[in-house]
Amino acid sequence: xxxxxxxxxxxxxxxxxxxxxxxxxxxxxxxxxxxxxxxxxxxxxxxxxxxxxxxxxxxxxxxxxxxxxxxxxxxxxxxxxxxxxxxxxxxxxxxxxxxxxxxxxxxxxxxxxxxxxxxxxxxxxxxxxxxxxxxxxxxxxxxxxxxxxxxxxxxxxxxxxxxxxxxxxxxxxxxxxxxxxxxxxxxxxxxxxxxxxxxxxxxxxxxxxxxxxxxxxxxxxxxxxxxxxxxxxxxxxxxxxxxxxxxxxxxxxxxxxxxxxxxxxxxxxxxxxxxxxxxxxxxxxxxxxxxxxxxxxxxxxxxxxxxxxxxxxxxxxxxxxxxxxxxxxxxxxxxxxxxxxxxxxxxxxxxxxxxxxxxxxxxxxxxxxxxxxxxxxxxxxxxxxxxxxxxxxxxxxxxxxxxxxxxxxxxxxxxxxxxxxxxxxxxxxxxxxxxxxxxxxxxxxxxxxxxxxxxxxxxxxxxxxxxx
Length: 468
Ligand SMILES: Nc1nc2c(ncn2[C@@H]2O[C@H](COP(=O)(O)OP(=O)(O)OP(=O)(O)O)[C@@H](O)[C@H]2O)c(=O)[nH]1
Ligand SMILES: [Mg+2]
Fold this sequence. Notes:
Gyrase A, domain 2; seven-stranded mixed beta sheet; six-stranded mixed beta sheet; 15 helices; 49% helix; binds magnesium ion
């Protein structure tokens, strides 16, 4: 719960995106909302002196300066505390023009409202205890969601599933704290049973916190895209593959080996999954400085890749030292791609397909493609998708954290808990352990929005748009 307060002046903003549309949304919140609404909006058939909450009115927008009507609109008044912000609010829906919307906003400002800051409506909702900090973060993640999975995770944050998980951990902490306090009060009587229980409960809580910390990486992957790195020897057709995958003529293709120097990154979706596909400089021993730097960057990309497409030219399927080294670290996520199959006759290709299965020891089956004709591309995309799904299945469920703020607080709580465990084992004073446990609980509460500083709030709400 928030301990901060604010002055209830009336804020106002355009909540629809800039530009022309079917309708615009102008929103106001604060004590003076109802008076301002009565001055700017004249309903067609209703007595507006007894304006009802949550009812949709239609009417005209009145400009007190020119004493004329400037638009036709719908509006709704929502009485606090049942509104989004918790204060009296109204929303006005004029036609979706740029000029009329701005003009109506200016009338409202002249009637005494002030322009809202970014995210100020949601900030007021938080300060009025309508939503927790985690829920405010969830709203932002929903607005920014770029894939089904990020949307599902953000919704689980909004519907309280994440808070419930955090509260379960908090209950474990409270149990630990109660045990320690029982030991302080009745040292002899309770020690035996509590001793064993303490480590069991602390272990359970650590696992739960660890799972939540791990969930962040999965969310980030889904948000920013899984990186799929195309690598292999020079001239095997890596850039041609990138170009066909993205449908753009993005990378330079040429018959001279060593064409691509710096890596090239493009974004696309594979069955709902956001992907960053990265074309890199071909790997070979070289003394040429520029190419050498490019190859260094290729290795950097391979290191952090979520999936590696290792490309061969069908006319050179020899295994080599470079491939062996990559395989050592990336076996599970490496997909061998055999390119340029258009250069072979069908019977020769079939023969190679049979033999290659014996020759190579890959975790994933080789895929035969032609960047020239597009042959095998669907199969290759499916293979990449499968690798990503395999990675994802290591993550247990769709309830997880979504911000670095949440992650940092969980890490803090986990460190405190492990310190408390060590102290308990070493037989250090129970009073010290009790203080640690309380700190651990505080870190968890801060995630939901316990005692949170103005600076943290400013940082969060400034990411929202004006009018949210
Ligand atoms: N026949 C045929 N030629 C291809 C195919 N894919 C690429 N090529 C040709 O192979 C040559 C090299 O292609 P690139 O896409 O530049 O190869 P790269 O792996 O990016 O090369 P570097 O950037 O130098 O490492 C070009 O002449 C392409 O036209 C294919 O599927 N079939
Ligand atoms: Mg290239």
